[in-house]
UniProtKB/TrEMBL annotation:
Reactions catalysed, as given in the entry: an epoxide + H2O = an ethanediol; (24S)-24,25-epoxycucurbitadienol + H2O = (24R)-24,25-dihydroxycucurbitadienol
Region forming the signal peptide: none
Biological pathway: Secondary metabolite biosynthesis; terpenoid biosynthesis
Domain of life: Eukaryota
Keyword Hydrolase part of the UniProt annotation: yes
One family name in Pfam for this protein: Abhydrolase_1
SUPFAM superfamilies per record: alpha/beta-Hydrolases (SSF53474)
Biological source species: Lactuca sativa
Function: Epoxide hydrolase involved in the biosynthesis of cucurbitacin and mogroside tetracyclic triterpene natural products (e.g. siamenoside I and mogrosides IV, V and VI). Cucurbitacins have cytotoxic properties and exhibit deterrent taste as a defense barrier against herbivores. Mogrosides are nonsugar highly oxygenated compounds used as high-intensity zero-calorie sweeteners; they also possess pharmacological properties such as regulating immunity, lowering blood sugar and lipid levels, protecting the liver, and acting as antioxidants and antitumor agents.
The name this protein goes by in its record: soluble epoxide hydrolase
TM region positions: none
First-level EC class: hydrolase
Amino acid sequence: MEKIQHKMVAVNGINMHVAELGTGPTILFIHGFPELWYTWRHQILYLASHGYRAVAPDLRGYGDTTGAPVSDPTKFTTLHVVGDLVALINIVAASGEDKVFVVGHDWGAMIAWALCLYRPDKVKALVNMSVPFSPRNPKFKPIDGLRALYGNDYYIIRFQEPGEIEGEFAEWGTYRVLNDFFKYRKPAPLFLPKGIGFGTSHDDPIILPSWMSKEDLEYYSSKFEKTGFTGGLNYYRALNLNWELTGPWTGAQVKVPVKFIVGDLDLTYNSMGARDYIEKGGFKKDVPVLDDVTVLQGVGHFLHEEKPDEINKHIHQFLNSYICIKPDRLCSINENKWCIGSISNKIKETLRRYLLE
């Protein structure tokens, strides 16, 4: 972990904290809720050691990134966040690297889908996890639909009133709140009834998920103790505004190469019709260059932390299939095939084996 470098970058009117490591084609990692750049620690180390430059920011409202008006949820639309990331890509991309690879999870997946819709010219290929693409429904707003489907105790509905859920989180304590989110593994929608939350008592012992260390949870807790949860909750509070602003993209497809990975115990896979959408052709229709869908058995929502070795290999193999080798440089292509310059067959085979290890 001490190898990972940290810096602050001025982008789109905010100061963004960025963790990075490695040299080679750039991979932009986009975290979700309640996460930070730290959620990608396993992927950063692995991909950097395999010839990539891993770049993982704290999104606006999170961690050590500062400058976003946290008291104003209207400043947390997908247009704002994608604007941050496009500015970041323009700064961190290597000379001649007009596109980057992108990996997203949870809200990071939603932002990645939006990035591919708004600025596909910035993305070589995408690995998205947990949250499939959600095409805009012109007939009703997201919050209205979710309230009608799941009621007022559904977690996204509970997040809507500024200050309300933050007050409950404060009563439960940051450490316990984060642990309850990370260990949630029910293959069903998440409900947080007022005053009950995850159903644990303040006096119950805190039992960590098997894949998370005390030091990991303490890192997350130290950052959310400093910033609070409002920045992350604002993404949910901007859902209806996103709908209002994205009318021009109604019916638009995501036209970059995509690999999608989800755990079969993930709440997102088992709510809002996601499983049928993925398995019955709707997903492929909206994402026509969808290369592969991988459903991991016995795995929950935070799959990249729960099964880092497996996820690392999936990401590595998929991104390597979009690397183009020429005699003088590495570049990328948006076709699932090799593009190799005029070098000997022996060298070609060696390069293929190296990149697919």
